[in-house]
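USER:
Class, as today's exercise, take the chain set out below, and explain how the chain folds.
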Amino acid sequence: MRGVRGTAFDPFGRAEVRRVERALIGEYRALIEQALAGLSPESYGKAVTLAALPAVIRGYEDIKLRNVAKFREQAKAL
C-alpha cells in the first residue's frame, strides 16, 4: 500500500493530523528562513532554539495536535 501514500487514494491523507503535518513543513521552513535573514550574534540563541522546536511535536493524533499548538506558541514567542 506504500504506492497509495500521498495520492488521492490515500485513505488517511485527509485526516486533520496529516494535513497539519504537511502544512508544518512550509511553516517551519518559513520560520527558519526568517531567522536566518536576521541572524546576528545577538539573535543566534533564539535561532538555535527555534531550530530545535520540532522536537516538541511528538505523539499520535490529539496529542500531536496539542504539541503542534505548543510549537506554534513557542515559535510566536521567539
In short: The chain has a mean pLDDT of 89.
